[in-house]
Structures are given as C-alpha cells and as structure tokens.
Amino acid sequence: MKKIKMVLSIGRQFLELLFTLKPKEKSRTPIKVLAKPAFLGGPATKVSQLTEIMAHRRQHYSSVFCLSAVHTPIFLLRILKLLGAKVVVNQNGVYYPSWFPLGWEEKNAYLRRLNVLSDHTFFQSEFALRSYKQWVGDLPKNYSILHNPVDTRKFLPLEEGALKNNALRVLVFADVSEFTEPLWQCVKGLLHYMEFHPLERVSVEWTLMGRILSGKVFDRHQLGELDKIEKLKIKMVWEPEAHVVPERIREHDVALHLVYNDVCPNKVLECLASGLGVIGLSAGGTVELVGDAGITLNVPQGFGKPAFPAYSELREALSSYFAQKQEYRRRAVLRAQQFDLTLWHEKVRKECLRS
After folding, report:
1. How does pLDDT run across 206-233, given as a tens digit for each residue?
2. I need a labelling partner for 201 at 20 to 30 A (CA). Which of 21, 94, 110, 209 fits?
C-alpha cells in the first residue's frame, strides 16, 4: 500500500511538471523537484532550502532538481529532458560495502544513470567527488563543487554576555541509527574516560542530542542512561522538535562531530553559524566545512571500518579548544558566512538558468 501511494504521488507530480514546463522561460524560481523525500534528514533539509527558488505548483519552471539520495524514476526524467527541461543533480554520497553491504552496486548503477542525464551536477564536497570517481565511475560532463548551505537568519550565535567563561559546554548532535552507531559507541567510551580523566580547572557540561531512528542501537549502548555517569554533567535532548534546535545549539561552546566519512554534514554548518567551533575527523567532508574554525583529528582514511581518535586525543582537543574558545567562536561565525543560504541560492539559480 505504501509503495502504491508513493507511485501515485510521483505520477501526480510528473503530470504537474509535464504541463508547467517552460524550457526557455527565465524566472527567479526556475526549479521543481520530481521525487521528494518521504523521510526527515539531509534530503528533506535540501528541499526546504530550495523553497525560495522553487516554482509553486502551477507556476512555470525550466529545471528539474534531482537529489541523489532520493530515487527519481529515470524514464520520467528522460521524458522531461526530451521536452527541454534542464536536469540538475545534487550529488551527495555513494554506496560501498562496509556501510551498504546489500545492493551497493545496484545503487551506484542508478547514480551513474542519473548523472549521465544531468546537464550539471553539484557535488556536495571534494570528498563526494572523490568517492564518486572511486565507486561510481567517470565524472559527469559538467560539474562543480557546491557545499551544503546554512540559513544564518535561523542559526545565529548567543550574545557575548550570555557565555560562561569558566565552562566548556560540549554538544554531540547526531541521530541514533545503524550508520551512526560507531559514533555513539565512541562517545560512550569517551564519557567513561572523561569520568576518570577530567579536564583541569574546567567545568565541562555535555549535551547529547538527536533523533532516535534505531531503538536497537539506542538500547544496545544504553544511551538513555548516560546521564547517570558519576562526576559528569550530562543532559540529553532526544527527539528535539525542529523549532527548538537552533536555540539548543547556540547554548554550547563546541560541537563534537565524529561521523566517519560524513559527506557534507548540515549539522556542522548549523553549529558553526551558531558560534560553535567543531572538533571533527579528517575522514570525509567535515574538514572542508570547518577550516580554521575548529580542530581536525587525523584518522586512517578509506571506505572500510570507521576509525576514531584515542580518547586521550579527544580530551586534549577539548582542552586546547577551551584555551581559545572565544577565538574559535569568532572564526566559526565568519566561516559559516561562506556557506550562507542566500549565496547558495544564487549559485544554484545561476546554473539552472545557464543556456
């Protein structure tokens, strides 16, 4: 029944796109999306970010915007392209055996077909481009790197006077799923380590935040009981409502982002815009976003089992960050401006209207 509803929904969207397509028309809202995500996460965020440059239901458009993580029926896309629609692909990650063991080849074959149809492909990071070359094949005929954006009108820092100068408020912001299970296993070990190796003369406060997408992972690592660890101040915000997330983020000093091979994490950009520097990993696209607004910890790179720094390295990174937290805060806000949503809109619109 769910699959039937999805097919009917895409069918209705296709008919609407068919009758409103105007390939030669120039507009401030040139884009429509054929296949929209039915789940929360990165693709849903991207559709929301497109709203300001997306044509409404009965408005004319000239470009179809495709999200690589959402299956767009290729034969419908070919029809629209034959009728003159420009096809623009937002290429996120690819599939490989260590995290998608069943069907990774078929998924990558779809990405290859999608990008062959593309008039222009936006890779979300240099890491996304390298991953595509390794696991999918030849690059599309026209492409560029365009990192994810952040709405700096929505995510913004606290006033200086609201900061706690003698404390380090650490945020771990990630959903709980099979994909992020290694991260949460690392965080759990780090918290137990910090119980017996606290930072000297620093009050550390921890917040764990995210959606619980896998109850099995949540229960397996007893994440709901971490606030009982003695000597540590731990607050947990599971299943936060979307409208409270910006406020919760800006209450912290630093974000710990330990997702291995994360392609272009929106959460990192939201933290930077909120005045939080980020401590992250060298594997993946996080380092491209953070720049000098945080600390990158070196780990073995590749597409095998996720790797993490030693707990002692993470502790040292937290200590180093505290010594310069005001400077990191300044850098974070400046860094986020490079990924501002308005700039992203202009780059996407420009490419969609290019003849």
Report:
1. 999 999 999 999 999 999 999 999 889 9
2. 209
- 168 has which bridge partners? 204
CA angle 275, 278, 282 (to 5 degrees): 155
Where in the chain does DSSP place strands (E)?
31-32, 63-67, 86-91, 120-123, 143-145, 167-173, 203-210, 233-238, 254-256, 277-281, 294-297
Distance of CA 108 to the CA centre of its chain: 20
Contacts of residue 225, defined as CB under 8 A and 6 or more positions apart, other chains included, come to none
Measured between its terminal Cα atoms, the distance across the chain in Å is: 42
The pTM is what? 0.93
Closest CA to 259 of 215, 220, 308, 211: 308
- Phi first, then psi: what are they for 208, rounded to 5°? -105, 125
pLDDT at 164: 67
Q: Give yes or no for a contact between 132 and 139, defined as CB atoms under 8 angstroms apart.
A: yes
**How far, in Å, CA of 332 to CA of 35, rounded?**
34
Interval 75-106: pLDDT, tens: 999 999 999 999 999 999 999 999 889 899 99
Amino acid at 85: A
